[in-house]
């Protein structure tokens, strides 16, 4: 083993791989658009990793074995997250085809009234996003339907899109099914449900303020009723067997989460339970998915397995609703898994080369108090979101950059994981060139800067994170020794 100390690169030189990453991502996203996650971003990450390795081996004299080991350690660190992502793919398919999500949407849409349209839109998108774990799917499906309803009722596009995005990213932020939630917890070594519970301290006040604003705006707006809700409700009821019995699945899932059952076990049980309910309530849909001409146990079994692992398309007679109830299964998670593996290679190279340490050393001098530490994390996360144009990469880089600092200061890892989500996940759709901002603007047909002022939840969350840090509520240090270090 080589014990020769490496030559730590300067903060300026350490920024070179990140600048290369930003430049190549900018070009890639301009060319590929929302399809950048299908391979372009992954290639860019590996290219930036190669630049980092070149500097590390040429300038810092780091051995390749050390870099390789750091990459392996990083990837092994998120191995659980990758397994969870695969199970989530199966769960999202089974929850949709079993009728769990359609039932929630069906009853959720019944509460829409013009005076409370914005509030209802935010709540419905939040519920769907929590249940599916995907803001993109929520916005691309129920979001489009709600946009049409809102336009018919005379609301401005900015207000409607703001309510949709606020609700969708509330779910994306706190859902145990969300890949960003899983990623933030795994990168910072924080148990998933512990991370979610701690986020409630900043998330609940943020969404409450958001709903108050939307309620006031809705009550002061005169709008006409729309028949689209009735049309969607009728189509859902014709396609699925809508039943309150299906709500047993999310209820049991909630109980398992409350009892702190490990994530993988909870998600697996929930997926299996939804699969059983699919066999009971939606056998005709499983037969349709299987493609077999005769409805029997063989076709239903084949349809169920296909629901777990592959893409499904259910014909409802309504093109928008077809998109809403389509699923991707486990295979739909592969681009995210691929991206995470490539990003962990980049993070490993940056760590082994000493570049991350060099960059974070600049931040340390500004972190004398808790509020300074959290504010610096928020600013860094937002900066990386702007620079890298991708929330996954920003979460990974923010987690890696600040993990050691939080440990040295004696703070619990959940403070870093929460701050990362408050800063990165919710601000990604507010940046026009970010993959999220571009995708949502394209899907909704509303420019990013048009809906940005009305995404109150997304704007309030980072500020709430800093506010709670300033108050010091529920922020604990690991031990007294660490506390004395933190106040030095």
Give a written overview of the molecule.
This protein is 74% helix and 0% strand. With 488 residues, the chain is mainly alpha-helical. Helix 9 runs parallel beside helix 20. It is globular. The two termini are 36 Å apart.
Summarize this entry quickly.
By secondary structure, the chain is mainly alpha-helical.
Jot down its keywords.
disordered C terminus, transmembrane, 488 residues, transport, 25 helices, cell membrane, transmembrane helix, Na/H_antiport_NhaC
Topology at a glance:
Layout (H helix, E strand, L loop, with lengths): L10 H22 L7 H19 L5 H14 L1 H19 L2 H10 L7 H16 L2 H18 L4 H18 L4 H9 L4 H28 L8 H12 L8 H11 L4 H19 L1 H8 L6 H13 L9 H6 L9 H19 L2 H10 L5 H19 L2 H19 L3 H13 L9 H10 L3 H4 L4 H16 L8 H7 L2
Helix pairs in contact: 1-2, 1-18, 2-17, 3-17, 4-9, 4-13, 4-15, 5-6, 5-11, 6-7, 6-8, 6-10, 7-8, 7-22, 8-10, 9-20, 9-21, 10-21, 10-24, 12-13, 13-15, 14-15, 17-20, 18-20, 19-20, 19-21, 19-24, 20-21, 21-24
Subcellular location: Cell membrane
Keywords: Antiport, Cell membrane, Membrane, Transmembrane, Transmembrane helix, Transport
Membrane topology: Multi-pass membrane protein
Strand content: under 5%
Structural class: mainly alpha
Helical proportion, percent range = over 70%
Oligomeric status: single chain
Query: In total, how many beta strands?
Result: 0
In DSSP terms (H or I, runs of 4 or more residues), the helix count works out at 25
State the separation between the terminal residues, measured CA to CA.
36 Å
Order of helices and strands: HHHHHHHHHHHHHHHHHHHHHHHHH
Q: For the report, how would you describe the main beta sheet?
A: none
Q: How confident is the prediction overall: mean pLDDT?
A: 83
Which radius of gyration do the C-alpha atoms yield?
A: 23 Å
User: What shape does the CA trace take?
Assistant: globular
Low-pLDDT regions: 480-488
Domain Na+/H+ antiporter NhaC-like C-terminal: 167-472
Main location: membrane
Subcellular location: Cell membrane
InterPro entries: Na/H_antiport_NhaC (IPR004770), Na/H_Antiport_NhaC-like_C (IPR018461), NhaC_Na-H+_Antiporter (IPR052180)
